[in-house]
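Page 47, continued from p. 46.
Same chain as before, 707 aa.
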Amino acid sequence: MLSEELKETIREAYAAIMERKSLVPRWGQRQMIAEIANTLARIPAPGEAPALPAVCVIEAGTGTGKTIAYAVSAIPMAQALGKRLVVATATIALQEQFVNKDLPDIRRHSGLAFSYTLAKGRRRYVCLTKLDRHLAGGQGETGLLPLYPDELETPQAAEAMPIYTGMLDALGRGQWDGDRDNWPDAIPEPIWYGVTTDHSQCSGRRCPNIGQCSFFRAREELQNADVIVTNHDLVLADLALGGGAILSPPEESIYVFDEGHHLPDKALSHFASFCRLHTTRQWLQESAGLLGQAATELASLDALQRPLQTLPGQMTELVDSLQVAEQVVAQLFSETPREEGRDTPPLRFDHGRVPEVLVPVAGTLSGQLQRLAGGLARVEALLEEALDDDFAGIDPTVVETWHINTGGMLGRAEGALALWRDYALAGEGESPPSARWINLLEGGGQFGFELRSSPILAADILQEHLWSRAAGVVVTSATITALNSFERFILHSGAPREGNFRVVESPFNYANAVFRVPRMDCDPGDAAAHSQALIDALPGLLDRSEGSLVLFSSRRQMLEVYQGVRGALGELILMQGDHSKQEILRRHREAIDAGRGSIIFGLARFADGVDLPGDYCRHVVIAKIPFAVPDSPLEAALAEWVEAQGRNAFMEISVPDAALRLLQASGRLLRTETDEGRVTLLDNRVLTRRYGRAILDSLPPFRRELG
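Result:
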């Protein structure tokens, strides 16, 4: 229950922040505080069943002050209930701002007493064992398998060794905590991944460097902190491992998901599976040879000899089966029509049903991978025991090396097993079905196949791992509703309908901005004509002296339009793909600060999270209503499932999705209470199609100039 004492604590904390920071209390902010506190008051006492789910989904318009609102309400509630507050942001940048700036500021001004810490995954920290091994090996081999051999090249020793030496020196002097984000310089990916690890390659408490391990030192701080700050990915990774593996158990946690509109998509990515045929074959062939070497080096460990001698044969059988799978997949692709001059689209299976010819192959591979994973797990367990004992005649470094390598092999085998086990089920009788598809990978004149499977909705996943287990959950973002409804979010996330769903309006004055749809003589469905219309319109539409953001739905159109306007606007344009996102934003701000104009060309996703207040963005141009790319296998599978039930996928899925994306793009204009400017949509369909009025009515109350 929400006691009077607790209410007073929250009120006093909020009032203190307002007074000490000379801020004006906002109605929406106070409303948000009340909604969160009242929702978390639903959390029952130990042993009692909840009457209503302690789930609050709250859309808080830009400028509400979400961070202060959920902090001053959720921190006292969590402390009173004996729960840990886990605040998850969508990106590492947002999480670092919260822990380095926002939380210290709130603690200093609110009068609340609480501790907090930052939680990151293993791959953000250096692995001292791997670092030692690289330095000991010098120019030679370390004996360790790379973490991601398919994706990253092995770095040159001449480039890597000075960095590794500097890392060890900084660790020894106490000048670095092993966190990649705290290293003073950028670290190339191949060099960093040579000295980091994941859970499959980590020997945990048995590692001889556990006392100095940067990851475990950081993890120990999690045990005592009132507030844990992390990102969506780490929360979902923890939930996928059963909960409580990295963070506090869900039952003992209150989660706040900031930028929570990302949550369903993030969940899908964590529970999807894939297998690349060619690189998996290559990995198995190399691993079979390495295990033969392991049998020799670990000869005095009798219990290991039988599995180490059996596993290479199992790997060879798998290589043969994967070759059969490759032949079957190649035949499936050869039967698929292909347009000349265009990239080969993914081969998506209708209703998620795996072709009959592929099901028995998947069954064979699933069984073989199950046996391989079981054998590798036994070897890993025996090596763990060996790490605890002192075996005369065996260098403990050798045991440790093979424990790390076997863990990596096991993790990879389990990943492939998840895909082939899913394909062996054939996809019959699923509701909703999974999306299953195959990508043709082309590069260097060679072809390869990548098989993928993913749920089309995160509803069941989040119900099993989050909604049904967490003590309480708060989801907040400036954009959660679509077409003025939470139905889209409920469909994709499975958030319980008995939860508390609220919209808190932005304090911004939208009369300071104009939403304009100029009359055009073409339909965006005619791509060539629409691109030419953009080329003709943009030079006169964009002010060369101000900051503008132009957003496209496809890369092809962005490139075509750029070529067409380069003569008139080229020196002002910064185009996505030419530089990193951070560099584009830096150059844009630099140009505006110097009194020059600057125009950013980007895809719709580029705008996500971009903050360009004031003169940095006076004009947002949206090329067309941002409907999903039609060849997205996930989008297509979801639409197919909706249509199969006799429903209208376009109106239920495509239009709400497009409305939400348009709202997010339009939200790039007003970032402070004094901002002003224009949003221009170069798509007449919002005026001529029956769904257009619903999309327009879901936008903020800009002044409108239509047609």
